[in-house]
């Protein structure tokens, strides 16, 4: 029985598509077996992409995806989170959650937690701008594991987030038309899977430099069907970049070409610039991109098509295609 369960996890949680790399929009790249990936504090960690995953942990995640932590912030409790618990209706009803407000769900990346970036910056940007529910997802029980294990557990974590949102709405009201799911790096694929669990009915899903290693042809990655409007902001998509670097959403934005960012000298800085830019647009809605006909235009900075604001907090936003926007070196960019 245990062997069967482990086989199910292996086959369902990490399935590669048969799409050839030349059909993927963006840079064609492969990762070496051994790479360095930064944790939530910027410390570089050596990663073996072919490492044997922790099957016991994955088995537990598969059985108990509802064990994610959910922490609510509103204007009534901007600095002190209220804990929301799956299948505990009182934790919802006794909180400041208001189903009539927009709800923003934020998922962190690898070796991170609800207190690490981009959670605080994006949370504060939203609460300064409008009266919303902010739910920080803490999936550190899995994200704290080795990278190969974390990748394989992302689909189950995402399904758990989707199930929690469904429970939240059924318990205390709300509508998926007012939900915006935002994830950084590995968290981008988490919210993609959450949106898929919800039938693609969440108003917006935003991937902030969706993780690249082990995701280039992974069918569980963020995709355009995960929400009503799905947006990706690519900032570190170079051949050795931490981001996926290819179009995955309805609208894919490539700030400054999507490979390296002004003022950055490291891949870590480029990668983080995605959430920094997004938080700034929530406050200012000032970064306006031009549509591109191809990645050749993106790379050559010759995009002259229709204009679309990158990021922002508009729940009714629409758009399709490739977009480039050029930014400044420093906040607010």
UniProtKB/TrEMBL annotation:
Domain Lipase span(s) in chain numbering: 63-310
Position of the signal peptide: 1-18
Superkingdom of origin organism: Eukaryota
Coiled-coil parts of chain: none
Alphabetical UniProt keywords: Secreted, Signal
Location of the protein in the cell: Secreted
Sequence similarity: Belongs to the AB hydrolase superfamily. Lipase family.
Protein name, as recorded: Lipase domain-containing protein
Organism: Loxostege sticticalis
